[in-house]
Amino acid sequence: MELWARIAPHYPFVRQDSRMSEQVTSPVLSAGVDEAGLLGLAHGYHQRPTRLLKTTELGGQLAKVYAIEAPGRSVDIGGSEHALHLAALQLAADRETGALGLAFVMLHAGGDGDYVLVHSWVEGYMSRLAVFNGPMDSPASLRPASRGLAPCVWEAHVIAHEREAFVRHVLDADGPLYARIAAWSDDVLTVQATGGTR
């Protein structure tokens, strides 16, 4: 048990198993960890194709528009007019409440429905995020998502990339602003699908 006393402060999220001894060095998962659920997610995880559809002005902001596609689903920019209209309305509202004119939009053809995420960079190093969702292939049914719905792992990948691009090219760069924005605009995330599960 001496080993556990030495490592426990470094692993506050695990608990000691009564079977542990000096020979056992791997901690046991906390009772709050859903092992079966997490392993099920890990087994079914795959990369989703993610690509830039276009960079355009929407609602008075310069926005990168991304597509994320679940297996068997696709995002067609021609069929996304309603989603882009919603995004433009949200970006215009954000502009009136402190948005700085740079944004990104995600059109996610998900496995359980369609999602539109609209993200604006705003004053004070903050951001605004609006999420709309609806049934698959029914863009006119997109509505503001229920309170508490947050980005999924594939959407969070885009958010993480865009945060780094914004900091690297706009906030932490030198040179004229037009050159910084051009570099930000060119820094896009592209993800190819992986075959099946891991």
What can you see in these coordinates?
The protein has 2 domains: 2-44, no CATH class; 50-186, no CATH class. Mean pLDDT is 88; it is low at 21-25. The strands form 2 sheets. The protein has a 6-stranded mixed sheet with strand order 3-4-5-6-7-8. The chain is an alpha+beta fold and 198 residues long. It starts with a helix and ends in a 12-residue tail after the last helix. It contains 5 helices and 8 strands. The radius of gyration is 21 Å and the shape is globular.
- Measured as a percent range, the helix fraction is 25-40%
What Rg is obtained from the alpha carbons, in whole angstroms? 21 Å
- Strand pairing plus helix content: what structural class? alpha+beta
3D shape: globular
Percent strand: 25-35%
Low-confidence blocks of residues:
21-25
Strand order of the largest sheet: 3-4-5-6-7-8
Provide key terms for this protein.
2 domains, alpha+beta, 5 helices, 27% strand, six-stranded mixed sheet, 198 residues, two-stranded antiparallel ribbon
